[in-house]
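Response to reviewer comment R2.3. The reviewers asked that we include at least one raw input/output pair. We reproduce the pair for Pimeloyl-ACP methyl ester carboxylesterase here without editing.
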Amino acid sequence: MYGLDGPALLLMPALWLIVGSRPTRWRCAAALAVNAVFLVEVLGDLAWFLDHDKRWLHVALTMLPAAAVCGWTLPRLIRTRESHWPHQPWLAVPAKGAALCAVLNLYFAVVPHERITPAVLAAPLVPAAAVFLAIVLLSLRDHPRGRLARASLGIGLALALVVALGAAAMTTSTVTGYAANDLAEARTRAVRVPVRTGRVATEGDNLYFEVRGSGPPLLMIGGAQGDAGFYTYPAALLADEYQVITYDRRGHSRSTRNTTSFDIAQQARDALAVLRAAGHDTAIVFGNSAGAIIALELAARYPEAVTAVIAHEPPMIALEPDRKSLAFFAAVGRTSRLFGAEAGMFMFSMPVGLPFAAYGSIPADFSTRTAESQAYFVEQEMQDFVSYRPDLVALKAGKVPIVPAVGVTTQATNRYYGRPAGILAERLDVPLVVFPGHHMSYFDLPRSWTEALRGTLHRTTSVPGR
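Raw output as returned:
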C-alpha cells in the first residue's frame, strides 16, 4: 500500500467535490473507495505524512463525512433516478461536507504543528464551518439564480476558504522562537560581509565556492540541491570569528555537472578539494541533511583533514531501517521519472514539514538557482543519501569529534530525518546536541540558530570566542 497515501490525499477533495456538484452512484462509490484506501493507510501506520498525534484527526476528517454519505446520500441515490437529482439538492450536502473535510485533511497533513491545540484546530475549522453553512443554505434553495450566479458564489467561497487556510497556516505553523528582527539583522549582515568567490577543478567538474571572514576555517556543506546559499545568513554571522567556506556541490547551481554517476565518496573528495582551494588543510566541518552525510564520509575517509564534525539531522534512514520512509523515497523517484522533477520534488518536500515562514526567509536568487537541479537531486542523489550507512568503525578509529545534532521542532514532530541523529549519538556514545527550530532554521531563525552553532563549535573545538 506504500505510495497510495499521497494520491489518495490529493484525490479525495476533487472526487468529493465532483460528487457534490452532481451526485451519482458511481461517483459516490469512487470517492468512498479512495476514502477507504486512505483510512487503511492511516490506521495501518502506512502513511508517509502521518504524525501519530494527528491520527485521530485524519480518521475523523475522513470517516465521519464518509459515514454521512453512506447513511444519507448513497441509499437515496440507489432508490432515486439519477436524472431527478437536481430536484433534490439536499442529496449533495453530505458530499460537499466531505469535500471540505478532505481539504482540511490535506491541510493538517501538510502544515506542521508541534502540538494540536484548540487554537490550531479552530484556525482552519471555523472558516471551513462558515463556508459549509453557506453551501448548505445555497444548496437548499429551490431555484438558484442561474448558473452564473451559482458559479460566482462557488468561486468566491473557494477563494475565501483558500485565503483563510493560508492565513491559518502562516499563523499556526510551527516556528519555534521566530523573531522578525533577527532575520532582518541577518539579511543586513549578509549584504555587508565581504565575500570572496573562487572555483576549483576536480575529477572532471568545476566547483564554485565562497569564503567569508577570518579565523579558524569552518567548511559548511549543503544538503538537497547543495547550494552555497543555504548558509548565507550563518556564514555572515560567523564571519567575525571563523573563516566560513561554503560551496555549490557537484551538479548543483553554479558548479558544473559533467559527471554522470553519483558517489558519496566523490562528494567527500569534492569537499576536500574545496577546502584546499580555499587555502586550508584542515577545518571544522558542519553539514545539514545530506551535507551532514558528506561530512561524516569526509571524517571517516580523511580524518587528518577534519578538526570536528557537526552533523545536523543526517537523513540516514538505513542506519536503523525505516521501511516506510525507504518505500516513500522510492516512490518519490518513480514520481519524478513519470511526471517530472517538479512533481517529485513536491512529493519530497511535503513530509519535510517546514514552517511556512521558512520559505519567506530564503535569500534572493536561491530558489532560482536550485530549481534547475531538482531532477538531479531527486533522480541521482536522493536514494544514495537515504540509504547511506556511516562507517562507524572508521569514525571511532579516526578520533574526530563527532557531534550529532537535531532541531527541537524536528524532535517534537518526530520527523524521519531527525531520528538518525539520536541513533548515531548512541552508536558513537556521544551527546546529542539540540538546536533551535527545524530542519532548515538557519533561514527563519538565523541568529538564534547560529548562536547555537557557535556555542557548539566552542565546546567541541575549544576555540575561544572573541
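The CA atoms of residues 56 and 310 lie 37 Å apart. The chain has a mean pLDDT of 87. Further pairs are available on request from the corresponding author.
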